[in-house]
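User: For my dataset I need records formatted as: sequence, then structure tokens, nothing else. Please produce one.
Assistant:
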Amino acid sequence: MASNVNPTVRRRRLGQELRRLRELKGMTAEEVAERLLVSQSKISRLENGRRSISQRDVRDLCGVYEVEDHRIVDSLMQMAKDSRQQGWWHSFGDIPYSVYIGLETDAASLRVYDPQVVPGLLQTRGYAEALITGALPETTTTDIEKRVQVRMRRQERIAAPDNPLRLWTVLDESALRRVVGSRQLMRDQLEHLVEQSQLPHVTVQVIPFELGAHPGLNGQYAILEFPDAADSSVVYIEGVTSDLYLEKANDVQQYSVMYEHLRAQALNVEQSRQLIAGIAKDYAR
């Protein structure tokens, strides 16, 4: 197994392998929890990669599943050790959406729909600072700056010379019209959006107000896809106090179909670019 995978993805792969071993044994998570005298929720968190997995956890689970091949056990133990290493984002302290950052860092492509704001990967520093300040009014100046720095660091995936992130963004027109910070700041942001949309691996489309009701009215979401076939796609839905990660094939399929409808109903790339540029000019008046 490759050793250059970030810890978030490594935990996820390890959890998937442990789930596979449990299912091969024909055991439920509740039965495993009973055998190990732990809660069923712990087994679930280990299997979905949301919790760090210790080498002791792996050893105990392999014992329950009667894994006799020492090479498999040693490989899983090494994965557990690697999964406890820290990614670059940990140097910024406690980041509420660190699981998402770990997934985004390793993703090959990202499809985003946002009805309210410009997505983080395409934000200017000024827009990001004004947006975070307005959205989190009780956050300290220090924490705001930390969040902005993390957002700017995430954008390095877009500018990476080798294997940049493939980004497809569908925006509602309201994200362009909502004045975040100031009119000058919005002009800078929209001009930046036009510039970024010209990159060969970045696609930006806009759903105009005149379209009316459309499949994205339920809110923002993102679909992450990974280069390794062993890593299933993930739908990410950001929440106020907690985030939602959907990995079941049926869930991912439904959101993917909805995204295709959004792309089909949105203005095409050139029309979207013209609309964004036009609104940017309006902010200069």
